[in-house]
Specification:
2 copies of one chain form a homodimer.
Chain A: H1 2-11, E1 13-14, E2 20-21, E3 29-30, H2 32-46, E4 53-57, H3 62-72, E5 76-79, E6 91-98, E7 103-110, E8 119-127, H4 131-142, E9 146-156, H5 161-166, E10 172-180, E11 187-188
Parallel strand pairs in A: 4-5, 4-8, 8-9, 9-10
Antiparallel strand pairs in A: 1-2, 6-7, 10-11
Helix pairs in contact in A: 2-3
Chain lengths: 195, 195
């Protein structure tokens, strides 16, 4: 998705060989027009799969997730990173380790909103170590629902997540795949290439 | 906004005389079409104020916030509830006490994304005790920017927040104003009435 890649090239800040900061349009400030285009692109790629829900994790997944849900004409559900006082009965949980934040979060979703008749599109901002995506897959399975596919805004293809998540057999679509952040520079993977 | 009021009547769960749960369309599951209509309504009410940014707080403010930003054709910024490892330099913070969660959060925003030339529309899901809105106002003031207005999805008019926030002199627009949750029933304030 060229619009996204151009944005990453123009505004992404390479903090190290593994960390890309995109706070100007995705993770802190959000570009609503870009989110809308991302939503349209996810809908285009997954439109024939009978999706009934989009599931993401707070907070950075919500903006691309709500746009994908809008375009697919289904509800969005956002998993919470810790239990809320007003979310108690029928809560499904999974543990997710964040390498970025070096902490374990319990992500949770109410069984009211993901059920056995659902075909769920998972959406997240980044795919790096794959822990968040695997946690979301686990939530969907526990709910007795089906994973229809996984839509990722930015995949860091040089990390393990893409391989781990694709090994589950689910279809993963990443709108920008980054091959390397070496030498302070973003290098995208060639379209269609699978490392 | 009747679409929203109807949704609250149909799906809102009154947990007590002060707590309304709207997890089916705003706080956990999100209705993207409703969020789009909410975004349009905020844009309609605030369109002539020269707004340059929409500012909200993660997580439940993001969906209505991104739709308002889309309609106003400006970026969204979401304040974080705790400091991130990759957000350090130039961080503006304010303390916000949550009565719902009974804890104090430090909300933060990068000074990169709210500056002295900005006219900021604050958007949040609920106005109850007003602490979140006052925290957002404080962030904008610290950044040297101007508050153009405050857009609230659901105001619990029987709590102090509306009065506290209106006393600051800023324009507050709430799309649904709830006068009472007594006897397990949602009673809306009459349009135009100010208690």
């Amino acid at each position: 998705m060229n619009l996204l890649k151009n944005k990453i090239e123009d505004e992404g800040v390479v903090l190290s060989g593994t960390v890309l900061k995109v706070d100007s349009f995705l993770n802190h400030q959000v570009d609503p027009e870009l989110m809308m285009e991302i939503g349209k692109e996810f809908a285009r790629r997954f439109k024939d799969l009978g999706i009934t829900k989009v599931l993401t994790i707070e907070s950075s997944g919500i903006a691309p997730g709500v746009m994908a849900a809008l375009q697919l004409n289904v509800p969005l559900v956002f998993a919470r990173k810790r239990k809320s006082l007003t979310l108690s009965e029928g809560v499904i949980t999974s543990k997710v380790y964040s390498y970025t934040k070096q902490e374990e979060n319990t992500i949770s979703v109410s069984s009211k909103y993901i059920g056995e008749n659902d075909r769920v599109l998972l959406v997240d901002d980044f795919l790096a170590n794959g822990q968040a995506a695997l946690g979301l897959i686990d939530l969907v399975k526990q709910a007795g629902a089906n994973v229809a596919g996984i839509g990722i805004v930015i995949e860091k293809s040089f990390q393990d997540g893409g391989k781990l998540v694709r090994e589950t057999g689910y279809r993963v679509e990443s709108l920008a795949e980054i091959q390397s952040l070496e030498n302070g520079k973003v290098t995208f993977k060639q379209e269609g290439a699978r490392v």
